[in-house]
Amino acid sequence: MKLVSLHRKIERNSGLLIFGILVVSSIGGLVQVLPIVLGDAHGAPAAGLAVYSPLELEGRDLYIRESCSTCHTQQVRPLLAEVKRYGPYSRAGEFAYDRPFLWGSKRTGPDLARIGGKYNDDWQRMHLLDPRSVVPASIMPAYPWLASRDADQGRTIQARMRALQQLGHPYSDQDIAAAPAALEGRTELEALVAYLQSLGRSMAGEPQP
Amino acid sequence: MADMPSQFWAGWIVVITVTSFLALVWLIVDIYRDGDLGGEVKDELWDETLREGARPAPVWWFWFILALMAVSVVYVMLYPGLGAYRGALRWSLGGQITERFADYETQFGARRRRILELSFAELAHDEETMRSAWRVFNNHCTSCHGRDAGGQAQQFPDLSDASWQWGGSEVQLSETIRAGRQAAMPAWQASIGEQGVRRLADYVLALAAGDDGSAAQAEGAGLFQQFCTACHGADGSGNPVLGAPALNDAVWLYGGSRADVMRSIAMGRNGVMPTFGGRLDETQIRLVAAWLSAGAKVPDER
Questions:
Q1: Is it the case that residue B1 has pLDDT exceeding 50?
Q2: For a Cys-Cys bond, which of A88, B196, B207, B249 suits B192, CB 3.0-4.6 Å?
Q3: Complex ipTM above 0.85?
């Protein structure tokens, strides 16, 4: 068979052409994406990785709401300088319970992948309410409303956890039943700080690099 | 398909990549053999009455594309790309960073080991070393302790004075940084009442002002002996093992106004210095500790 004549035929038939374009443009995805989604190892949770507690999960959603990832990344790249500054470089398994992941792409502020435990809770609270109170030259915006708003005002924590449970996050039904109580009386500030303090903890004590 | 073995996916990648590559080569070669390169503009009928002239691609395109294909074949032979095949160069991202760390070790290893052997006084002597120490401090500690290590926000202690809550020896300073510290000053409001708190505050302020105040604040002194000496010492000079600060000097972490001191006594204080053992290595810890020990002098920026 001559491939050129086949090519000519396809070029002259729009139905065939659309089909051909779909086949050709799917090749990259079939090779690069499908094995990672369906096959295995990459999606497996890292040893020591814990699923987010209801408070941390709420904090994560606040991190998304406040668009912290426009200025902060959550990925330590495998470069000497980054490992020296932030700690061990990020591994795929650390993001098994991040849907969607919050890797970000721009660093106006520092990377936050290993921020958990770097500061105490007091500092995190002061810094979010007024960054200039602890870092005089900071250009990070202040988030004063976090302190006065209750966490989970929409009462959606159970629905969110159930959705993640369906996607394979190991929440038990008891966990979900207990979630509203865990958020009772907590502020958004507490939730966001709990989330920040959880970041990168599964790799604590991991030898560099 | 989720439980397919990884060989399956390796094979999947190889088959699709090789097949589509060969199909492309075939197509290009076919076009060449068809003589559909170079030459005259052809008048082609595309559809019913739709005509358009088609100029065949120049011949050098053919050779160019073929050369690029040859390059990609060489590439997947050298580098990982075809399924589980690791490539002749055995290159890997992990291997690359391991190599960088090895370079770093050859470049700085000897100097870094030497830092572990020198005494604090010897380290403080070398300006370049103190500059490195300050850089470590600037990267990890200034957000809390301030750029000049002078403390801030009545939460984070001044590290440039010689008054150490947890002790200022080489071992104690290094341990503070390596393992962190959690202070536990109990809240006294409930057990000694508003009145007691006020008397104690007056007594503590008198202590700090340099007189032991026992005549003027006899009741405060009594309460102090009863509740506070276990940690702060009979004369209020503190206990570095517990992180209980000296109260008989004018250095205050949480403020020295009457209101601040009353707040400390009534509600307690629980300062937390984070653990840096996992973030800094022993050389860096020793460097910063030596810099603090030498008075935390910020070097001139160059």
A1: no
A2: B196
A3: no
